[in-house]
Design brief:
The complex is a heterodimer.
Chain A (H helix, E strand, L loop, with lengths): L1 H5 L6 E4 L1 H6 L1 H16 L4 E2 L10 H5 L3 H17 L4 E4 L2 H10 L8 E4 H10 L14 E4 L13 H8 L4 E3 L29 H10 L5 E4 L2 H13 L7 E4 H8 L3
Parallel strand pairs in A: 1-2, 1-3, 3-4, 5-6, 5-7, 7-8
Helix pairs in contact in A: 3-11, 7-8, 9-10
Chain B lengths: L1 H28 L11 H13 L8 H30 L10 H31 L11 H31 L8 H9 L5 H25 L7 H10 L13 H11 L25 H9 L5 H5 L1 H4 L6 H22 L17 H5 L6 H5 L6 H16 L4 H13 L23
Classes of the chains: A alpha/beta, B mainly alpha.
Chain lengths: ~250, ~425
């Protein structure tokens, strides 16, 4: 982003990579898939790189409003400094915070989830997706809470999956009734409270009952939880857990 | 004449006592925090029509949803008849609304049909409570008294409906020229054809009194029962939060302090009279809407049934939080009213007697509870508000979260990675040109 600014350029869209997308090895692959698609579609995008910092979502959900607001204000200063108008994120938690919680602190942007941006690109004719690798494969979509119930987006990821000419199957608990992966509300960073079962095991079990080839999702936290869940049942060889962006980029061999 | 006077006095006492109760409850509401919920009124009206009158969220569970809708819609039309009974009782008239003609026929016929549907609903509901026993009717917060409350209310509604049908049947059987239309009661009336006028009038009178006195008792019982939702769910839905579920509100008191911290030259605002504590520690820290949520909760358990924490054996039950809040306000509120803000009984909403920290830390903020609640109770913001008190007032958080906070403070990420590594993913990326 700094380079673009030095050349007096403003990106069409800023890709907010997020902490998972930056540091988590598995989520880095999602980041790369998103970048490959943006590049393929010739979207003028930028990333903040080393200037990006945690949105503050886990701090806010963890009850630390001070820390959240400090993070938010610093990020808003950077974003406003570059004159950012539109942001895309591959993390529903970043997406929700940027979209819904930054405006009250002076950060007004058009914020979309990457599945929504991909849908926009298809609608605009810039992205053409055809079956490819996933033709005829059985795919189920696990709704991230912060995308689905939290922000009422159920269709964009499903429409993208349908573009792959795959067999879309729904879990019993999906869309509005989707069952959490167990990582939201800052759970990602703490031990699970005492109980009889882990939330992600319960959810992975439900997904595996469908005997899918792919469990798709749109959130790096869900990715971690579902991947662990699938491993718990020793199914990682036959069932892949992939982000919708990875499905698209693999199908198109980008 | 004497009857009219007696009835008027009973009516006066009924509404007087109801006003007294409501006044007592509204004083508890005055202890809570302000929150503005009077914006976007047209949108609120639409939601109320759909969710409250249309019962849309109830229908997610079709059987109990439909049966409940019978009871609710029936309640609405039967209430017109109740108003007529009150006027008749005070003025000594008979069926005083009959001048409404066709509309009167419509109201009486719907009330008649709904009364019989409500009887069926009550029987099914009782069977569910005592025979099929869905899991959501159980839980630590479901004390024997909650069950007794539910059974008592169902029994009362059952008797209300039976008496309504009997009083109408006696009226139909006894009167040549009658007002209104009663498809069900006419069937019952045909069974009474052998009875003489005196007996029929006695049946009619007795059931008229049973019905109206029970209505009066019901009205005054509601505020002391979980069935306060009869009164509060319509406003509770109307004042629902209109933003996306996942948006948590900004704490403006914190914003002021953070701005000062980041820009020391900013002018501090005039000092507030007394510093408010952050988050919710006790019942009086909640907003009026959260307290209304707690009074509206009917303990149906739909929230708890879909809660991922609860269904995997964690201590959290979203329903319990609101049952506890209501209980806590009832326990502490009178003391606060009598002795002022400094009143303390040595307990708090967050504590061993009410909501424990373990319950609060089990929430994944997945919002399934909010999505499911038929009366738009807003669980997650309430949970986060209590976490705010734990973290910002008492510096209490699970070890993992404390470490996560420290990492964000030190290196701007919840994990221990330096910002300089943020672009490492880009090192080996191969971009193909289309």
């Amino acid at each position: 982003m700094a380079e673009m600014a030095a050349n007096n350029e403003v990106p069409e869209v800023l890709f907010w990579v997020g902490c998972s997308g930056s540091f988590d090895e598995r989520a880095q692959k999602i980041t790369k898939a998103v970048v490959k698609i943006l590049h393929h579609c010739k979207v003028k995008y930028a990333v903040l790189g080393t200037e990006e910092s945690c949105t503050g979502d886990p701090a806010k959900r963890g009850g630390n409003e001070f820390l959240f607001q400090m993070q938010a204000m610093n990020n808003i200063a950077v974003l406003n400094g570059y004159g950012i108008k539109k942001i895309v994120s591959a993390c529903p938690h970043c997406f929700n915070t940027l979209k819904n919680e930054y405006p009250d602190l002076g950060g007004q942007y058009e914020v979309v989830h990457h599945t929504q941006l991909l849908q926009e690109l298809i609608d605009a004719g810039k992205l053409k997706v055809e079956g490819g690798t996933f033709e005829g494969k059985k795919i189920t979509f696990h709704d991230p809470c912060y995308l689905g119930r939290g922000n009422s987006e159920y269709e964009a990821p499903r429409q993208l999956i349908e573009k792959l000419d795959s067999e879309m199957v729904e879990m019993k608990r999906s869309k509005q009734r989707g069952f959490c992966c167990g990582a939201g509300g800052a759970q990602m960073f703490k031990d699970e409270e005492k109980g009889s079962k882990s939330v992600n095991i319960e959810r992975a079990e439900e997904a595996l009952e469908l005997q899918p080839d792919v469990i798709a999702t749109g959130c790096p936290f869900c990715m971690t939880m579902m991947t662990d869940g699938v491993k718990h049942f020793n199914k990682e060889a036959s069932v892949k857990v992939l982000d919708v962006a990875e499905l698209i980029s693999q199908a198109m061999d980008l | 004449m004497i009857t009219k006077i007696v009835f008027s006095l009973i009516t006066l006492f009924t509404f007087g006592f109801f006003a007294y109760t409501i006044n007592r409850i509204s004083r508890l509401f005055k202890l809570t925090k302000k929150e503005f919920r009077f914006d976007r009124l047209a949108e609120r009206a639409t939601i109320t029509l759909k969710v409250a009158f249309g019962q849309t969220k109830m229908m997610k569970r079709p059987l109990s949803g439909l049966l409940h809708a019978f009871v609710y819609w029936g309640f609405l039309v039967i209430t017109v008849g109740t108003l007529e009974m009150i006027i008749d009782g005070i003025a000594g008239t008979e069926r005083c609304l009959s001048f409404l003609g066709g509309f009167y026929n419509f109201i009486t016929a719907s009330a008649d049909i709904f009364a019989s549907l409500i009887i069926i609903s009550c029987l099914v509901f009782l069977a569910r409570r005592y025979i099929t026993k869905p899991r959501r009717f159980t839980g630590v917060e479901m004390k024997p008294s909650s069950r007794a409350d539910a059974t008592f209310i169902l029994g009362m509604i059952f008797v209300l409906m039976v008496s309504l049908l009997l009083l109408n049947a006696a009226y139909v059987a006894d009167t040549e020229i009658r007002h209104g239309y009663f498809p069900i009661s006419e069937g019952i009336a045909s069974l009474m054809s052998g009875l003489d006028t005196g007996t029929l009038q006695m049946i009619g009178q007795t059931n008229w009194w049973i019905h109206i006195l029970l209505v009066y008792f019901f009205l005054n019982f509601l505020p002391y029962s979980k069935h306060f939702h009869v009164i509060s769910s319509v406003p509770n839905v109307f004042f629902t939060r209109l933003e996306p579920y996942a948006k948590l509100k900004n704490m403006s008191s914190v914003t002021t302090e953070v701005r000062l911290m980041m820009d020391p030259s900013a002018t501090p605002p005039p000092a507030a009279a007394e510093p408010e504590r952050f988050g919710v520690k006790d019942a009086e820290d909640v907003s009026w809407k959260t307290l209304m949520d707690s009074y509206t909760c009917t303990e149906c358990g739909r929230c708890t049934a879909v809660c991922p924490a609860n269904s995997t054996g964690k201590m959290l039950s979203p329903r319990k939080l609101f049952v506890d809040l209501r209980r806590r306000m009832k326990d502490k509120g009178p003391g606060l009213i009598a002795e002022g803000k400094s009143f303390s009984d040595g307990k708090a909403l967050i504590g061993p007697d009410y909501i424990t920290e373990e319950e609060l830390w089990a929430c994944t903020s997945c919002m399934a509870c909010i999505e499911e609640c038929p009366v738009d109770i807003d669980h997650v913001p309430f949970i986060i508000d209590m976490r705010r008190s734990l973290v910002m007032e008492e510096s209490k958080a699970p070890a993992g979260l404390t470490m996560m906070f420290t990492n964000i403070e030190n290196n701007g990420a919840p994990w221990q990675f330096p910002a300089s590594d943020r672009l490492n993913w880009a090192q080996d990326i191969e971009l193909k040109n289309a």
